Amino acid sequence: MSEQDPTNPLSADAPGADEGAPAAAARAIPVRFEPGALRRAVLTVLVIVTLWQVALWVFGSVRDFLFLLLLAWLFSIAMEPGVAALANRGLRRGAATALVGVVFALLTVGFLALFGSLFFTQLAELVKNLPATVTSLIEWVNSTFGLSLDEEQILDELSISPTQLAELASNLAGGVFGVIGLVFGAVFDALTLVVFAFYFSADGPRIRRVIGSWLPHRSQAVFVRVWDIMVTKTGGFVVSKVVLATLSAFFHCAMFAVLDVPYWLFMGIFAGVVSQFIPTIGTYIGIIVPATFAALVDPVDVIWIVVFATAYQQLENYVFTPRVSRVTMDVHPAVALASVFVGIALFGPIGAIIGIPLAAAVISVIEAYTQRHDLLPELRARTKGEKVPRSGDRYGGDPLLVVPAGTALSGTTVPTDADVAGPGPGADPS
Fold first, then answer.
1. pLDDT at 427
2. How far is it, in rounded angstroms, from Cα 291 to Cα 281?
3. CA 216 to chain centre
């Protein structure tokens, strides 16, 4: 028989233990589940899971509508500079919004009347001839670099089926009227976009007051500032990009037409839009694609395309952009490129266009409400080889504090502001 530990409070021999209860019963600790509490916990979990599934179902059902609302909001803030200018001249906001919308519609109809049939005909020919173009390009790569790429495998991986492309080309070949029949199912979406864009623009101040009435005074001040930042900065960004894309497309179309580049109208518009809405690499993509098609006809045209693109880039950087983008915000190229990829992943191809404006809105709000601190000399120091900072670049570093590249800043003696400024007046030169 084992000895009982008198120091164990659950032992039968311990002080205060029930002398008549067995030792095993004294050591047992019963655990019970309250039936009501268990039912409530299970019911709560089921309700949460059900609500989550319902929320996912609702979001999936109205996702396209929410996307249309997002596009309508972006379109409304893009119209805001024109609407505000007309309203300040005595025109009511509704009439000003309608006038700006009519001007945009007339420009669109005018473009389709002049170039619509040619544009969609070229697009149909491009789609129809895409397999042959890819095949020619692969053969050139194989013969030039001594490779053995499989044409059929590459076409299959790119999903470039001649049957599917021929069907798509037949739909596009009908010109404007063929496209109208093709996109007839999207008329309701377009009407929804126009209606809500008009409402957001014409009734914007009232919408702002309605939303503000739901917030306390302290939050109203924040809301007003966020609203102003998003409308001013994001609206200016959208307008500037549209104007620059239009200019770029016009000049590229003219140059490609002179060089008789295949599908010159489509290629010029492609180069103009891609170069503006896909940062950093968009300029190169907008030139590489037309140059590839031109090389299959006349390789000499590639040289002229590169020369023209280089010259136009300088014209755009030093003439067009400073005049068009005065009120817009600057988005870091890495952030802009990431927003393009995120936009494509969320919304498809059109997400590449709206990704940067959304990123501009978010960054403008973050810039307004994040606290900045002064940098230590080690962080303000520039390393040798850095590019010259642009005017107003707060993170370009101090040109007076330069350290060798590749050195650890924590172990480097960086001159302070007093050292850079030198001794003050009346100081002992010794």
1. 46
2. 15
3. 32
DSSP labels, 268-318: HHHHHHHHHHSTTTHHHHHHHHHHHHHHTT-THHHHHHHHHHHHHHHHIII
User: Count of CB atoms within 10 A of residue 421's CB?
Assistant: 10
Say if residues 355 and 392 touch (Cβ distance below 8 Å).
no
Rounded to an integer, the average pLDDT of 168-184 is 54
Residue type at position 426: G
Please check whether residue 120 is in contact with residue 178, taking contact to mean a CB–CB distance below 8 angstroms: yes
| 381, containing H or E segment | strand 381-383
Angle at 429 between CA 424 and CA 430, to 5 degrees: 135
The pLDDT value recorded for residue 430 is 43
Instruction: Tell me which DSSP letter residue 215 carries.
Output: S
Does the pLDDT at position 9 exceed 50? no
The DSSP secondary-structure symbol of 11 reads S
Sequence length of the chain is: 430
Which uninterrupted H or E stretch holds 169? helix 162-172
Mean pLDDT on 300-304: 90
Cα–Cα dist 136/375, whole Å: 56
**Domain ranges for the chain:** 62-203, 215-372
42 — phi, psi (to 5°)? Answer: -65, -45
> What is the pLDDT averaged over residues 46-58?
91
